[in-house]
């Protein structure tokens, strides 16, 4: 089985608010989520609104490279 032929791939979503503003002094890190997407249906980068425990609000989490 070839590894590059999988239709569903695992992606990492990272908080764009924490990355853009830099990590706040009181926060300890950057929020990340792991999910899957269908490569054929969604060829572009995935963006979802998720809760960031470091920003204490719902922000846009964008797909990053592994």
Give the tags.
66 residues, mainly beta, Rubrerythrin, domain 2, 4-stranded antiparallel sheet, 9% helix, 44% strand, elongated
| CATH topology-level fold name of the domain at 7-17 and 28-62 | Rubrerythrin, domain 2
For this structure, what is the CATH homologous superfamily of the domain at 7-17 and 28-62? Ribosomal protein L33
**Mean pLDDT across residues:** 84
| Structure classification | mainly beta
Give the strand content: 35-45%
Supply Rg: 14 Å
The count of DSSP E runs of length 2 or more, i.e. the number of strands, is 4
Order of helices and strands: EHEEE
The spatial strand order of the largest sheet comes to 2-1-4-3
Organism: Acer morrisonense
Protein name: Large ribosomal subunit protein bL33c
GO molecular function: structural constituent of ribosome
Keywords: Chloroplast, Plastid, Ribonucleoprotein, Ribosomal protein
Can you tell me about this structure?
The protein has one helix at 16-21, and strands at residues 8-15, 32-38, 47-52, 57-64. It is mainly beta and 66 residues long. The protein has a domain at 7-17 and 28-62: Ribosomal protein L33 (Rubrerythrin, domain 2). A hairpin with a 4-residue loop joins strand 3 (47-52) and strand 4 (57-64). The mean pLDDT is 84. This is Large ribosomal subunit protein bL33c.
